[in-house]
Write a structure and sequence with these properties.
This protein is an alpha/beta fold. It has helices spanning 4-20, 22-28, 36-55, 74-81, 93-102, 141-152, 168-177, 194-203; strands at 64-68, 85-90, 106-107, 110-116, 127-132, 155-163, 210-220, 223-232.
């Protein structure tokens, strides 16, 4: 998938996570002490990771899984410990290098192949499951649906992902964030209305045969994200 809006935002994310925020992200995803605010974000991410892993089968022996936007690799490693053959992809070479240092290539009967690249690249092949944790939260609703449609074409069982829920508080944060000088901003979240997302998924022809399953919002201080499951009917 390569729309103009997706391509522009992908470039911003690559610069931010590979350069601007690489050190902060490495610390946030470790066990090192962090500020009270960052601790709430860490707790929220831990809860969300557990939620998405809970949407997958308990046994993943031999199943191929794409961790789309894997960051420092915690989810990929956990899936491999349950037997999955994981392709873990991220735009940031810095984060992928850190993921390789932190996580063994093999774990619990599974394996992780950490790769630098675009999480939507079809050359990574076909999968039984796709997980996209907080990697679609910076994209507009229409781009989120296009990404999901691309995954559906090469996924056999399920796609589990998160989006930034459109709440009054998050909308205010998004609006205020746009007032900062461009060079000082983190890539903005794109708040998505759940009902609108469900409507677009149902109307997308390439997602015919898929249904929305479990859905759960996680809120922890400054961390707000919503999990959703798509499964083949």
């Amino acid at each position: 998938m390569d729309t103009t809006t997706y391509r522009e935002r992908r470039g911003q994310l690559e610069t931010y996570f590979d350069r601007t925020a690489a050190d902060a992200w490495a610390r946030l995803t470790s066990t090192a002490p962090v500020s009270r605010v960052r601790a709430t974000v860490r707790a929220g991410r831990d809860e969300m990771r557990a939620t998405l892993l809970g949407y997958l089968p308990a046994g993943l022996d031999g199943r191929r899984l794409l961790d789309a936007g894997c960051g420092t690799g915690a989810l990929a490693t956990a899936a491999a410990q349950r037997g999955a053959q994981v392709t873990a992809v991220d735009l940031s070479p810095t984060l992928i290098a850190l993921a390789r240092d932190r996580g063994p290539a093999t774990a619990g009967g599974g394996r992780v192949d950490f790769r630098v690249g675009d999480m939507t690249d079809p050359s990574f092949g076909e999968f039984d499951h796709v997980v996209a944790m907080d990697s679609l939260i910076h994209y507009r609703t229409e781009d989120v649906v296009r990404v999901l449609a691309g995954y559906a074409a090469r996924t056999r069982s399920s796609i589990v992902f998160t989006f930034a829920p459109r709440t009054p508080a998050l909308t205010v944060m998004w609006t205020v964030g746009r007032l900062f000088p461009r060079g000082d901003r983190a890539p903005a979240l794109e708040p998505v209305a759940e009902l609108e997302l469900r409507r677009r998924i149902a109307a997308e022809p390439t997602l015919a045969g898929w249904r929305v399953g479990r859905s759960r919002r996680v809120t922890s201080g400054f961390y707000k994200s919503h999990a959703m499951e798509l499964t083949r009917e």
